[in-house]
Amino acid sequence: MELPADFKVDAGILELEAKIGVRENFFKDLLGEDDWSFVIKLHALFEAACTHLLLFHFKEPELTDIFARLELSNKATGKIAFLGKLELLGKDNRRLVAALSEMRNSLVHDVRNAEFLLEKMVAGFDSTALKQFALAFSPYETHIRTFPLSADPRGKLGYNEKFQKAASVDEMMKRAKSSPKYHIWLGAYNVIVSIVDMYGYSDYKQWVKAKAIFEEDDNAL
């Protein structure tokens, strides 16, 4: 599936690309890669983005080498484990990154996998495996399904029936089967936007921590 010719990615993604040192529209152009390169490069992008967010949060340049060497998706000591504990990467977003890591690890150690095709892989799934794949790579739609239908006629509370239907499990399975690369890319898009948003939340968390320390010092005087 191709993006519209006039499609522009979120400005925050472009800023993140500059921060981690890749060319502008690196993420957008991944859709044009062969499937093997798509998975490997997307995983590398998440590696760099998660490392950068951790370094931004702790503001300790001395930790650069340590964070860079951490596995991305190790549930106990990986980058996403740290970000999860810091509330900088939600459960559904971590699930996508972990699923991508599992796929990447199955491909990267054998050059013969360079001929890998996502559509062929998905075609071999039974209904259970297809559902797992579809849900793992659609965190935003999972978020939508957790909210009740909007009872507000102006549509400002919850998600209306149109959104709920578009985010249904059946629709996710259809999208995943018909265009698996686009399905993964779109899910990744939402996770990367969330990572970009977490820079501001990280600053807020650090401000709250500093405020509490200053208040303790004032009370001690």
Which features does this protein show?
mainly alpha, 221 residues
Would you mind describing this structure in some detail?
- With 221 residues, the protein is mostly helical.
- The chain has one domain (11-212).
- It is 67% helix and 0% strand.
Task: Describe the protein's topology.
Layout: H1 11-20, H2 26-29, H3 35-58, H4 64-69, H5 79-85, H6 91-107, H7 118-123, H8 127-136, H9 139-145, H10 161-166, H11 169-178, H12 180-220
Helix pairs in contact: 3-5, 3-6, 3-12, 6-9, 8-11, 11-12
**What is the global morphology?**
globular
Can you count the beta strands? 0
What do the pLDDT scores average to? 92
Compute the number of structural domains: 1
Brief account:
By secondary structure, the protein is mainly alpha-helical. The chain is built from twelve helices and no strands.
